[in-house]
Amino acid sequence: MKTIGNRDEDSSVTLLSFDTSTVAFSAAIVKDGILIDSILSFSERNHSVRILSEIKELLTRNGLQGKDLDAIAVGQGPGSYTGVRIAVTAAKTLAWAWNKPLMGVSSLEALAFGAWNALRAANEDGVPDRDTWIVPIMDARRGQVYTSRYAANESGKWETVDRDGIRLISDWASRIEEEATSDSCTAAVWFVGDTATHLTAIQQAEKSGTRLRVLACDMDAAAVGQLAELRFRQGERDDVHSFVPNYTQLAEAEAKLIAASRGE
Amino acid sequence: MNGSNDAVSPSSTSDYLLLAIETSCDETSVAVVRNGREILSNVISSQIETHKQFGGVVPEIASRKHVESITIILEEALREAGVGLPDIDGVAVTQGPGLIGALLVGVVAAKSLALALDVPLIGTHHIAGHIYANHLVGDIVYPAIALVVSGGHTEIVLLEEEGKFRIIGRTRDDAVGEAYDKVARALQFPYPGGPYVDKLAQEATEEIVLPRSWLEPDSYDFSFSGLKSAVLSEINRSRMKGETPDFSALARGFQQSVIDVVTGKAIRAAKEFGAHQMLLCGGVAANRGLRERLSSLCEEAGLPLLIPPNKLCTDNAAMIAAAADLKWRRGQFSTLDLKAEPILSLEDWSV
Ligand SMILES: [Zn+2]
């Protein structure tokens, strides 16, 4: 484990991070929590084509080689099954080939953390001593979203309230609204990410008229790198061989098989 | 970095190692092949036990399994070959055809490796792999006719010279392997049923003669859906009469019809195009009945026949290295933007 505050060179951490769980391809170089450079492109269903060229370009233009990296960070999902597999496969293979630590980060948490950074930059980080809930959402079709919930405040708190899952947006937004109403510690709720698709459901859940807010934003690999660095500095590592995407649900055929075996 | 490790490749400076990845369907396979022909390792991780319970390959589950095992199989292939990553001179991968989600895992892994090692990448055609599996076991003499029979493909391919593919016949409906699996289901065998049908047909004492689908007299194409229907209606007919269908006689009838047509057309093609050699390949090349008939027909015709051993007939990465070698020797490399293609033309892939 690396010691924070150690002034020798070793305390500096450089990560390559990327995510393909959404329509965005996002890659970044993060050094000691600071974004050095990034690439963001939109090529739905085509992440597999450009991912390695983009990573190569990002490394080359920053004068970096594999050996210069301290870890590979990747968005582990949830999100598009195929999309998540692309980044995870690239991350596993690069980490294995370069013999570097692999750090998986929830894509939802990265989406939320990136949004929180943007809100803070815009001085929207809320009321002193009270929390802001950040609720990332990614469309999962049929009224469902991949989502989770984090509690943050301006003194640097960042905690998971609800873990990654697939939920019906109408139920989920209502539940968040109810809980926020009865929780005096929570000042504001931000739905972030793919909010445009689910704006109606969020608005319908709104009771107070002011509490639920939305921030449409894209995945930012800088947040993947920053979250990974926190884990890295705590000495955490993911096992390259057994690392798999977090799909949050069984493949349809598996679910059917289990249902059938229960006689449903 | 490349080829500098003389401890591993002592014979000559031109020795080169290709690492190949194959994930087009339900096998995760990685091979290390020296000079395009010498297999140092060929690790195959089959998902068949997983897919059995679904009665066939489930694409989403196949893709998930590939991600689970890809780096494990990579590492095993290197260990078995007794080489390290710095010894690898090029990376080959199945680009298509195949299940898109499954192909993607191999393609992304291969591109990552090519980037990490800074070596050339070669996107490879799966069927070219099946055909060039023969180059791992013998010398190919051109012009040659390749009979490709597998779960997804039934093709007669003319190779006028090395690396030049011309498809002269293909199936218009089911592939041979597909027909076998469907008939196996009708005969109440579990998936994958091809080998059961082969065995039952071999042991049969009776044969229910079923129609042969020759199509137009000059055609090298195939059609097996009518034959499959004939099997089903034969089963229905005997059940209606209150009899027990004779599965073994049916299996034999089915197998004889398939073998007559595929070997008959292959031999005719060899004669018409003046082939100097016949190549049998693909997963169904493991079928004993087919091997035996083609062997005796080729012997009669004085035509040399190559058939790879079973392990090189089913999907494997060594065959991908063998085909990629065609491009390696010609310096025809892919870029890092290589795209997995569920449908990919074999003829266009020619060198
Ligand atoms: Zn095959």
UniProtKB/TrEMBL annotation, chain A:
Gcp-like domain span: 43-255
GO biological process: tRNA threonylcarbamoyladenosine modification
Keywords: Acyltransferase, Metal-binding, Transferase, tRNA processing
Reactions listed under catalytic activity: L-threonylcarbamoyladenylate + adenosine(37) in tRNA = N(6)-L-threonylcarbamoyladenosine(37) in tRNA + AMP + H(+)
InterPro entries, sorted: ATPase_NBD, Gcp-like_dom, KAE1/TsaD, T6A_TsaB
Gene Ontology cellular-component terms listed: cytosol
Pfam families: TsaD
Organism (species): Cohnella lupini
GO molecular function: metal ion binding; tRNA N(6)-L-threonylcarbamoyladenine synthase activity
EC number: 2.3.1.234
Annotated signal peptide: none
Name recorded for this polypeptide: N(6)-L-threonylcarbamoyladenine synthase
Domain of life per record: Bacteria
From TrEMBL, chain B:
Any one GO MF annotation of this record: tRNA N(6)-L-threonylcarbamoyladenine synthase activity
Keywords: Acyltransferase, Cytoplasm, Iron, Metal-binding, Transferase, tRNA processing
Substrates-to-products reaction catalysed: L-threonylcarbamoyladenylate + adenosine(37) in tRNA = N(6)-L-threonylcarbamoyladenosine(37) in tRNA + AMP + H(+)
GO BP terms in the entry: tRNA threonylcarbamoyladenosine modification
Cofactor(s) the protein requires to work: Fe(2+)
EC number: 2.3.1.234
Gcp-like domain: residues covered: 38-321
Binding site for Fe cation: H126, H130, D315
Gene Ontology annotations for the cellular component aspect, listed alphabetically: cytoplasm
Binding residues annotated for substrate, in chain numbering: V148, V149, S150, G151, G152, D181, G194, D198, N287
PROSITE patterns: GLYCOPROTEASE (PS01016)
Name by which UniProt lists this protein: tRNA N6-adenosine threonylcarbamoyltransferase
